[in-house]
From TrEMBL:
Designated name of the protein: RING-type domain-containing protein
PANTHER family (alphabetical): SBP (S-RIBONUCLEASE BINDING PROTEIN) FAMILY PROTEIN (PTHR42647)
A molecular function GO annotation: zinc ion binding
Source species of the chain: Gossypium laxum
Domain RING-type: residue ranges: 220-254
Gene3D superfamilies named in the record: Zinc/RING finger domain, C3HC4 (zinc finger)
Pfam families in UniProt: zf-C3HC4_3
Amino acid sequence: MNSYSLQMQPPQLIELSQLHQPNVVSTGLRLSFGGDQQQYQNQNLQNQQQHQHQQRQQNLVPSSTLFLSVVSDELATQIKSQREELDQFLQAQGKELRRTLAEKRNRHYHALLAAAEESVARRLREKEAEVEKATRRNAELEARAAQLSVEVQVWQAKARAQEATATSLQAQLQQAMIGCGAAAVTQDSRRGEEGIEGQAEDAESAYVDPERMVSSGPSCKACRTRVASVVLLPCRHLCLCTECDRVAQACPLCLAVRNSSVEVFLS
Ligand SMILES: [Zn+2]
Ligand SMILES: [Zn+2]
């Protein structure tokens, strides 16, 4: 058994050692056999080794060629399998890459869409605020217009009332002037009847105010010098000149509080 194992093991070791590291393994063999085995066995082994060495020399070339072919076949299959693995790996990587790219693209589109929606919503909110503001402003303007139309109606009513007042005042003035003219006529006729006796009285009253000479009509009841040409409201007395009208607070005839006044033209 031992010899058989010794016979069988060295060829493998030496064969491998010759392929890779011949010096180290051969030295180790020589040491191990020299220390452990007997001289006879050593000689026998040496003989066997020589014999085997000759056989190896004869069988070395074909076995190495066979081994190389086997190795090359194994290498080819390994290369083939590795190439297939590489192809699968590359395909898987490409698939993964495409999937990742698609996901990133989708995310990018979603982000873009979200940003666009947000900006559109913001602009919509701004426009709604503007519309609301414009509506409020429009309502304010409409309210202002309604108020102005009411004021216009009020002023028109006031103007109509003033016109009516002025018309009635004109009628009263005409009646008063007619009455004054009639009184003057009767006074003149009476004076004509009195004759010479009345001349002295006429001479006494010959002096008249110069302002009163240039204009005719009732005199102002406040200053008693200028002609009364202002009608006070609401009592409607024609009793003040324009100068006294500026400072008068009440009517000098009836003492009614002055509300407003209207200047009239007698001719
Ligand atoms: Zn006056
Ligand atoms: Zn009055």
